[in-house]
Amino acid sequence: MKFAVIQFPGSNCDQDCLAALNGIAGVNAEYVWHKKTSLAGYDAIVLPGGFSYGDYLRCGAIARFSPIMASVVEEARSGKLVIGTCNGFQVLCEIGLLPGALVRNRGLHFVCDLVTMRVEVADSAFTHGCAQGSLLRLPIAHGEGCYFADETTLRELNERRQIVLRYATVAGRIDASANPNGSVENIAGICNREGNVFGLMPHPDRACEERLGSADGLKIFQSMIETIVATKARAA
Amino acid sequence: MKVKVLVTPKAAVLDPQGAAVRDAMQHLGMPEVHSVRIGKYLEIEVDDKTPNLDSRLNDLCRDLLSNPVIEDYEVVK
After folding, report:
1. What is the pLDDT of residues A117-132, one digit of tens each?
2. Do A148 and B67 touch (CB under 8 A)?
3. Structural domain boundaries in chain B
4. Which positions in chain A touch B20 (Cβ < 8 Å)?
5. C-alpha pair distances (Å), B29 with each of A205, A223, B19, B22, B26
6. Would you identify the CATH topology of the domain A2-235?
7. Are A43 and A81 in contact (CB under 8 A)?
8. Topology of the domain covering B2-76
9. Predicted complex ipTM
């Protein structure tokens, strides 16, 4: 099974993503430079965290025009799984594969922490290895992770069950004390309407080994792998 | 010619940077300041003989210079 990890100038979690994925049996993850124009042959696409193009103008605003992005959009529209973590989430919002936008953290500070989030949708392509309402511990590290969407978009996200992860207290409550960045409705991760594109500010790539503080990131990658296996089996 | 573009956060979008500057202004002796919103100002040197300049500039503002989800823009010549 082949994963593509896109490298933009300024990506800095590309190595984390590659190491985490290649640590999983049966997975072969490769870098794909942003100037490439094809993603044929890959089963899934990862947009890693970092500071693509120095975060100039807005986070992800320039990366969305990288040559590889036309192919990312094409593969996403064809149903391939696409995951964007941190800066990757920002790029997916900028290019319109996911609704809303990520703005400066409410507290203005860059937040680097291990946080708790609740799985709101446990039958998604990215979380079906988790129990509904279960808690994940994943690291965050961002200055612009405050998710914003207008009221209409928020209503649609809720109605269509696209809000996959919400920041929660260790007791599983969704409240302001658990919100690290001011995101509306404590949103930590959302998927598109079709359910094959997922963006989240936390880093599953930095939490795939217990010795790193959490291995919960594996649940997300394993869910993706099982989805791909099931999709291939159906197609065969 | 020089084209100026103003990019401003939409009213519904939180602007913590503006709020911090407002607080600083109040502390520095201007309690009458109610609100500060911070946007971006761009100066663009462009050949004014270019065909369809206005519409192309607007496309550029919509697609690159601003994010319509969170920002408005204004082109000033």
Report:
1. 999 999 999 999 999 9
2. no
3. 2-76
4. 108
5. 48, 56, 16, 11, 6
6. Rossmann fold (3.40.50)
7. yes
8. Mth169; Chain: A , (3.30.1280)
9. 0.89
